[in-house]
Amino acid sequence: MPTPSMEDYLERIYLLMVEKGYARVSDIAEHLGVHPSSVTKMVQKLDREDYLIYEKYRGLMLTKKGQKIGKRLVERHAMLESFLRLIGVDEAHVYEDVEGIEHHLSSNTLDCMTQFVEFFEDKPELMAQFRAFQESNKTDDE
Asked: Coiled-coil region(s) at which residues (predicted)?
């Protein structure tokens, strides 16, 4: 199982591969806000763990294992964003909150959250009732 740091890299590499068709060390470093040397070290580690194939000066390519996990991580991130937006988390906090919690939830919890999101997306009348409930329970501090 990848560490949270490895997950961040795999998620970003997967997204870059989907968006651009390739992922360069410099692109990964820019998106994650780290030094290229840190990316190179992590990419080498991911290569050793069979998540990707890395050839110095030639680039990298996700293995099937890396693609599967990368896709799952992107889907997890998107679902958590949907969940937080659904329950009314202020948009300014959604991304940082997802980053803070995404590595610390069990598969069971993620499955339950996914079902919750799907239920409310399919029931707009209940969502409207929930929003009205939220409005009526706002405190003066909000």
From this structure: none
In this structure, are residues 87 and 96 in contact, taking their beta carbons and an 8 Å threshold? no
Share of the chain above pLDDT 70, in %: 98
pLDDT tens digits, 81-108: 999 999 999 999 999 999 999 999 998 9
**Residues 48-71 pLDDT 10s:** 999 999 988 778 999 999 999 999
In this prediction the pTM is 0.87
Single-letter code of the amino acid located at 53: I
DSSP state letter for 96: H
Tally of CB atoms within 10 A around 46:
22
pLDDT of residue 128: 93
Dihedrals phi, psi of 54, to nearest 5 degrees: -120, 130
Q: Read out DSSP for 5-59?
A: HHHHHHHHHHHHHHHHS---HHHHHHHHT--HHHHHHHHHHHHHTTSEEEETTTE
Tokens matching residue 28: 């990964």
Radius of gyration of the chain (CA): 18
CB 55 within 8 A of CB 61: no
Which residues does 113 contact at the CB level (< 8 Å), separation at least 6?
79, 80, 83, 105
